[in-house]
Write a structure and sequence with these properties.
Layout (H helix, E strand, L loop, with lengths): L1 H19 L8 H12 L2 H15 L13 H15 L2 H29 L2 H9 L3 H40 L2 H26 L5 H12 L5 H48 L1
Pfam families: EII-Sor
Membrane topology: Multi-pass membrane protein
InterPro entries: GatZ_KbaZ_carbometab, PTS_IIC_man
Length: about 270
Amino acid sequence: MLDAFLVGLVVFLCVGGHELIGFSLLFRPIVVGPFLGLLMGDVQTGLKIGAALETIFMGVINIGGASAAEPGLATALATGFAIKLGGGVDAAIALALPIGILGQQIKLAIYILFSGSMAPVFDRLAAEGKQKQFTYLHFGVWAIWFFAYSLIPFFAMLFGANAVQAALNMIPEVIMNGLSVAGNLLPAVGMAMLLRMLWENKIAVFFFLGFVLVAYLKLPLVAVAVIAFIVAVLIAQRDYQLNKLEKMKPAAAVQTASNVDQEEEDFFA
């Protein structure tokens, strides 16, 4: 009961908080996993699952009405089941993506049900200039929306843990090994999706530089991150100097033209 409450609370605070206070990224797996792990007494598992799922979901983007997956709910349930059932990171990763896809559709359905139905009331209060009532209604709809949404992980943890455990016990070992392999591949897929969006030919050299530093020189990721930061600072300084030179060119051209005119006047004087 307590574990189910904690999972629902984390979804309400993180996913709902992200929607309430702007693009705060509280719903990201790297936040939800460690936070839930701290509350459930297993921070290490929360960190592992949060980091693993972040590499998957960082390449999943919701554009307009095309929604892919909701990482907050997926991470909360995956972390909760992994800690409660002792399934480990591999099993949690295998469960996370389908949970996230289903969770996004449920979230949109609840949003349409509550927020969509209240749209005429918002319009009427705005037209009448009732700012206080408008604000109260805004926070009220938000609270109802995410309270209803947080009931999903609550009941899933409350009634689904035993069912999930039984299902995992029924799965043959060869299939579980396959799920583990697939789960280990998913972070690479997420990174590939992100790299595809960011890729430009002029930055390809940095990609291969990072590969060489890790694969051949065996540098830790912290050292690679420090090197990347130094390179970014150098590039920023170069761009800043180039921008200053570009701004100085018109002034120099005007000064040169003025000097030429003055010399011509002196010549004909």
